[in-house]
């Protein structure tokens, strides 16, 4: 099975769910609703976060109602307004007067958790890299440390990379539970500005190496391995990121020893690691 899922509007099921052979503990879908349209979501055994990408909507998690969620016209115009739906049995999305688009992120979760809202003011960010090192990106943590004690092992963020930027860099992995590394599944969903942009997803381990051209709307699955990404010059990149801890919530990345000298070369790595813990 391929790690790369190409963008398509002809879908009749979630992009990734428990039936996926590579990431059966991750859920991901995109929902687009016309003004006043409703959609119902039910994903037993998973905790979910609903991130409004554009427009506004009302989100009902079982009996709890969150009104007027969403404050941006698109993903390039500010921080996200979101709802952590927890392990609600039934989630109903009702679009506002201009319609809406949402990304739904989930992780396998055996314990019950209650819903809560994550406003843009509660979204923390960290800047990693620099223009000089061709690695400047800003990571906005929608569900990060704010979920400690009230969410399972799901982490959700939006990454914005400058044109020509290397992200996920220095190369790192998180597929083994040991001292200095945690075991987390990961999913990337890419957008580019302008949408004609593209990039490359590199993915390797001790046995294999591959590179894929990434275009606007594509999704890549990362159950294991090192996974740096590069964006074409002249285009900004957006990466919607889902991480699911298989043993714990906090993430600890293990950097490829062959590139350990880059840890001191690229600024902001310590701050990035702290935000994921």
Helix/strand layout:
Elements lengths: L3 E2 L20 E8 L4 E4 L4 E16 L2 E6 L11 E6 L4 E18 L7 E3 L5 E5 L8 E7 L10 E8 L4 E2 L4 E2 L1 E4 L2 E13 L4 E7 L4 E7 L3 E4 L6 E3 L4 E10 L8 E2 L6 H4 L3 H8 L1
Antiparallel strand pairs: 1-18, 2-7, 3-7, 4-5, 4-6, 4-7, 6-8, 9-10, 10-11, 11-20, 12-19, 13-21, 14-15, 15-18, 15-20, 16-17, 16-19
Give a description of the structure.
- The protein has about 280 residues and is mainly beta.
- It has a single domain, classed as Jelly Rolls (Sandwich), CATH 2.60.120.
- The protein is about 5% helix and about 50% strand.
- A hairpin with a 2-residue loop joins β4 and β5.
- The protein is globular and about 50 Å long.
Task: Give the key terms.
277 residues; mainly beta; Jelly Rolls; seven-stranded antiparallel beta sheet; 2 helices; 49% strand
Summarize the structure.
The chain is mainly beta and 277 residues long.
**Main sheet characteristics:** 8 strands, antiparallel
Element order: H for helix, E for strand: EEEEEEEEEEEEEEEEEEEEEHH
Principal-axis shape:
globular
Radius of gyration: 18 Å
Total domain modules:
1
Structure summary, number of beta strands? 21
Which structural class fits the helix and strand makeup?
mainly beta
* The CATH architecture: Sandwich
Q: Give helix % range.
A: under 10%
CATH superfamily: Jelly Rolls
Which CATH top level class fits? Mainly Beta
Strand-residue fraction? over 45%
State the helix count.
2
Question: Mean pLDDT across all residues, rounded?
Answer: 96
């Amino acid at each position: 099975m391929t790690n790369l899922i190409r963008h398509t509007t002809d879908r009749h099921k979630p992009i990734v769910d428990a039936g996926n052979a590579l990431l059966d503990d991750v859920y991901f879908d995109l929902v687009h609703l016309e003004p006043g349209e409703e959609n119902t979501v039910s994903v037993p055994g998973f905790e979910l976060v609903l991130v409004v990408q554009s427009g506004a909507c009302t989100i009902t998690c079982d009996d709890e109602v969150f009104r007027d969620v969403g404050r941006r016209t698109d993903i390039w115009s500010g921080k996200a307004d979101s709802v952590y739906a927890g392990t609600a049995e039934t989630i109903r999305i009702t679009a506002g007067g201009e319609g809406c688009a949402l990304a739904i992120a989930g992780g396998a979760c055996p314990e019950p958790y209650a819903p809560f809202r994550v406003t843009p003011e509660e979204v923390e960010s960290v800047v990693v890299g620099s223009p000089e090192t061709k690695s400047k990106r800003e990571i906005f943590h929608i569900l990060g440390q704010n979920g400690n004690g009230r969410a399972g092992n799901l982490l959700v963020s939006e990454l914005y990379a400058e044109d020509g930027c290397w992200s996920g860099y220095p190369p790192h992995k998180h597929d083994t539970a040991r001292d200095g590394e945690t075991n987390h599944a990961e999913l990337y969903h890419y957008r580019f500005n302008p949408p004609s942009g593209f990039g490359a997803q590199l993915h390797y381990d001790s046995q294999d190496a591959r590179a894929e051209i990434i275009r606007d709307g594509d999704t890549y699955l990362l159950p294991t391995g090192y996974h740096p990404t590069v964006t074409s010059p002249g285009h900004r990149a957006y990466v919607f990121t889902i991480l699911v801890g298989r043993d714990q919530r906090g993430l600890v990345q293990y950097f490829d020893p062959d590139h350990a000298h880059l840890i001191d070369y690229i600024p902001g790595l310590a701050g990035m690691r702290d935000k994921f813990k």
